[in-house]
Amino acid sequence: MQLDTRTLNQQRQRVGDDESVWLFGYGSLIWKADFPYLERRRAFIRGWERRFWQGSHDHRGTPEAPGRVVTLIASPGTVCHGMAYRITGETLKPLDIREKNGYLRELTTLTFDDGSQDEGLVYLATEENPAYLGDAPLDAIAAHIDRAHGPSGANREYLLNLAGALRKLGIDDPHTFALADRVKGQDAIN
Ligand code: SIN
């Protein structure tokens, strides 16, 4: 099932077209930054871990056969590394469309690589959203990703692009890397 969060997000934090705000990216927003930004900085947020537990009915799958993309799960004591972008309210609007399938904007504290901090937004898809798929054995998640396909392309491309971008940034992510290894492994078999 899907939930279109566009309107909800615009009611959550109002950002004027010319105002700027930090946005923390941890998934496709790391490797597909095809939007204008004023500044981009490595950053992390505390208490969250990346997981391929969110369904994608509109990008990497279809309503009948959703793909799997990342969301964050609460994980006290850990940090999630990613990329922060300072963007205008004008840029946030198309991103609300891109992230409309269950992601709600949350306000969080970003820590940059020099240790400085600022408030920013993050798109979070919680287990309450109808597109949430949740946990499954890694082999099952990998097989699911390997077969899913949607209007934005193959689900495996999303996974491998994210794994590649994280490796390039020197970010260790055992969950993403284990899935990428399994999907690559299936390549060798097919
Ligand atoms: C993000 O990248 O921060 C949100 C999830 C996604 O678009 O993959």
TrEMBL record:
<keyword id="KW-0456">Lyase</keyword>
<dbReference type="Pfam" id="PF04752">
    <property type="entry name" value="ChaC"/>
</dbReference>
<dbReference type="InterPro" id="IPR013024">
    <property type="entry name" value="GGCT-like"/>
</dbReference>
<dbReference type="InterPro" id="IPR036568">
    <property type="entry name" value="GGCT-like_sf"/>
</dbReference>
<dbReference type="InterPro" id="IPR006840">
    <property type="entry name" value="ChaC"/>
</dbReference>
<protein>
    <recommendedName>
        <fullName>glutathione-specific gamma-glutamylcyclotransferase</fullName>
        <ecNumber>4.3.2.7</ecNumber>
    </recommendedName>
</protein>
